Amino acid sequence: MKAIGTPGPLPADDPAALVAFDAPEPVLKPHDLLVSVRAVSVNPVDVKVRGSRQPEAGQPSILGYDAAGIVTATGSDVSLFKVGDEVFYAGQIDRPGSNAERQAVDERIVGRKPERLGFDEAAALPLVSITAWELLFDRMHAGRDEDETLLVVGGAGGVGSVLIQLARAITGLRVVATAARPETQAWCLEMGAHAVIDHSGPIDEALTAAGERAPKYIAALTHTTDHFEALARAVAVQGVIGAIDDFKGLPVELLKPKTAGFVWEFMFARSLHQTPDMIQQHHILTEIARLVEAGQMRSPLTETLGAMTVETLLEGHRRLQSGATIGKVALDAI
Questions:
Q1: pLDDT at position 12 over 90
Q2: Does the 128-264 domain belong in CATH 3.40.120.10?
Q3: In the CATH hierarchy, which fold is given to the domain comprising 2-125+274-332?
Q4: Long-range pairs for 84-87 at CB < 8 Å and ≥24 separation?
Q5: Which SMART domains match (predicted)?
Q6: Quick one: residue 239, left, alpha or beta (phi over 0 = left, psi -120 to 50 = alpha)?
Q7: Is the pLDDT of residue 56 over 80?
Q8: Where in the chain are the domains?
């Protein structure tokens, strides 16, 4: 089958960073679906893995996590889906990805595609939706009816776009997002943020200047190392900061005087470790689809770059690396 993969760690401006090749057909495990991929979207993890993965000699590694498509075959133990179902999912980090004609994916991390969305719109949702849900409810343990504030650092990115919508749709939290540019600030308000502050300076000072109370929940989605000291000053007593980006050596001792917590969110953890509650990601995507069908959430897709080729996929990677992307970028089938 046709596929696009990385031959080894190369920068996105190198035309050889991705290559088109003929890949072996996926082999189904008992809980697997074989999906004919109709659209994919690009995430920061695609860029990170492309820049670090060292495939086996002579065999490029297929990247891509978000996808939407149609089930064409099922494994022996599949019970949630059947051939012909339209699905969306974020895949696994330790299996061949979605940048191919077909992909094998465990049904326990797959949801039914919302009927009102096109394949490209649906492909922009899974990874960021699961990340946002797990961060808010499974890691930070936010309550649905709390009279508290959620601060979303980097609200115009993919995860931020969904987290704002999710919190507004099913919680009573006041949602304050951060963004630096007029267009990203406008996007956060369009997603449903009650207020937006500028994160180009100290975030705690911006919160105070805006008259906002100390947030009990802080979703640190980007540049956490740069913002951490300000976030430690900003977080409410007994609050929690949840992060998704990569860094080392944070001064977490700054949280002790407030007995505030710090947690990580890594949406691949459940599938990577085959946890007993792995099917929770199927349930999350089912709820996201319900919210979309009810008109309470929308896809964060802002642009589809056309059919997936080496050139268009590299363009997607370059846009993510620029840090200027709003929402999500998708590509149609290879």
A1: no
A2: no
A3: Quinone Oxidoreductase; Chain A, domain 1 (3.90.180)
A4: 85/112, 86/112, 86/113, 86/115, 86/119, 87/33, 87/35, 87/111, 87/112, 87/113
A5: PKS_ER
A6: beta
A7: no
A8: 2-125+274-332, 128-264
